[in-house]
Amino acid sequence: MQALPLALAVPDLPHDELAIACASHAGTPAHLAVVARLLARSGSTAADLRCGTHPPFDPDAAADLIRHGHAPTPLHHNCSGKHAGMLLACVRLGWPREGYTEPSHPVQRRIRELHAQLAGVPQEAVVAGTDGCSVPAFALPLQATARIFAALASPGGAHAGGLERIFQAMTAHPFLIAGPGRLDTTLMPLVPGLAAKMGPKRSTASPYGIPDMVRWGLRSRSVMGESAPDRTSPWRS
User: Fold this and answer.
1) Which of 92, 4, 10, 98 is nearest to 48 (CA)?
2) Largest CB tally within 10 Å, which of 61, 77, 123, 196?
3) Contact in structure between 37 and 84 (CB atoms under 8 Å)
């Protein structure tokens, strides 16, 4: 949902760049190349990213940095694509890039508004915290979150075009969503019509849609990051 303002504002954005804006990527060279291309569209560079820096999640990419004596940059952060997408959304919508991670910034207010609309709850029910990459993280009841992902699998209403583009981008580029050996990247090619996205503490969002059939949104999470989800909430559309 943090990429939805981008998908709505830039309907002709290539699917690989929209996919990287939805990603928690592994920091491989393939991921970084797409992030850099997305950044360039807004006239931004890695210095404009406010996601922070960490070594690549991919062990080979991390080892290559060490081998060549290079330090990680903000591009290697797993959320760099999301931040690059927010910067482009700001430019296209006439909002300042400065302060784009602040809850009061127009792009973050728009993301919160979209969460409420798609979940079918009032905005005051969308609780904001701070994500590990410094942007607001919005909390909802599990079933309300599943309702959002059902909307992603079966788009309708004013936001249908953007939702459909996100779904198509994710399913077309599963590698960009995560990376080698990651659950979401592994699952999507095995299950036609499935878009999967891992989050913190082993939370997983899985919109599932096949044309002319019932479409589902599934949201699961596990306590303390355990591998088996302890709670799952489906929503059928």
Assistant:
1) 98
2) 77
3) no
Binned at pLDDT 50, 70 and 90, residue 209 comes out as low
Q: How far apart, in whole angstroms, are the C-alpha atoms of residue 108 and residue 115?
A: 11
Count of domains forming the chain? 1
Longest dimension (CA), the chain: 53
Q: How far apart are CA 4 and CA 9, in angstroms?
A: 8
The fraction of the chain above a pLDDT of 70, given in percent, is 84
**Structural domain of 163:** 4-236
Close Cβ partners of 105 (under 8 Å, ≥ 6 residues apart): 95, 96, 99
Give pTM, 2 decimals: 0.87
| 51-55, 63-67, 90-94, 180-184, range with the lowest pLDDT | 180-184
The length of the chain in residues reads: 237
